Here is the input.
Amino acid sequence: MQTRLLSPGPDALALAARLLNDGALVAFPTETVYGLGANALNPDAVRSIFEAKGRPADNPLIVHIYDRAQLEPLCTVPERAPLLMDAFWPGPLTMLFPRKSTIPDIVTAGLPTVAIRMPSHPVAAAMLEACRLPIAAPSANLSGRPSPTTAAHVMEDMSGKIPLILDGGPCDVGLESTVLDLCHGRPVILRPGGVTKGMLEEVLGEEVELAGSILRPLKPDEKALSPGMRYRHYAPKGTVTLVEGDDKRVVETMRSLCLKDLSGGKKSCVLCFSEHVDQLSGCFPHDMGSRRDEKEVAHRLFDILRALDQEGMETVYSEVLPPEEVGLAVMNRLGRAASFKTIRI
Ligand code: AMP
Ligand code: MG
Here is the structure.
């Protein structure tokens, strides 16, 4: 199959709508990452998402809508949800709702809840409106690879497997949506993202919990609240090690570890904040953005993780952000890229 990469004018959007209604897959930009969409009401179409990504069948998908009127046939809406929709939709917040039987089992991996989001990206909104369907869409990467934040990333992973990619330029947030469970008593963040714990608490007026495994691996007998957390994810092929502690010593430690690997013949580099690039010259520094701008770090992260593979890096040493607000979302992804391997100094 030839994969067309089109800028999202009226003809491309009409083509996307036709393909989606015919049960085909379309990759499209959102404000978080690129999605790989199919008609959520067509189980065969949804199955082809799992095939194209190599995604485990027990990892459920997020359903994307453009209008709240689409919710009624799909799910029931918990009492607190409209408050959050008013505040954060359209935007990078996914909520779990008790599902109705119109949603095929394959979308939710048989779970009683369905994850729903209304993206704010104008191309995503226009495509959803043009096809008039709820669209099931995970990130448009091969399973296990960093999520795509440009159309070129999608092409790397999906070329020859899908008929169309809509190119909307680089994604704004650059990390996947916040996933919030409102169905089981106290609200719980299953996956941190651009809509933070503090932002949710301010609107809800109550405490929001964080799922235990956001900053550590799942224990062998621990049940994953969100099935996606079970899987190796965001991981480059090389070994990533996080280095945490006093600023000056972190830079010194990363420098000496990287130089030692380089002199032993390994391909090695560091991921550091803009403030430290000069001090780490000679260590192939990858600039993650200013440490004072966590949103910029989020925006750059997946592109950097993908570049590490292209460069054939075998060992990578990375600075860390405080795990708060958007920094929590960054550290969840970076932590998993490192399998949470950390040197504390
Ligand atoms: P992705 O589509 O790649 O952004 O991943 C979607 C994330 O949402 C995965 O971590 C899923 O496990 C999670 N998810 C989707 N639906 C549900 C659900 N019904 N219950 C819990 N987690 C879900
Ligand atoms: Mg994904």
Summary: Residues 247-263 form the longest helix (17 residues).
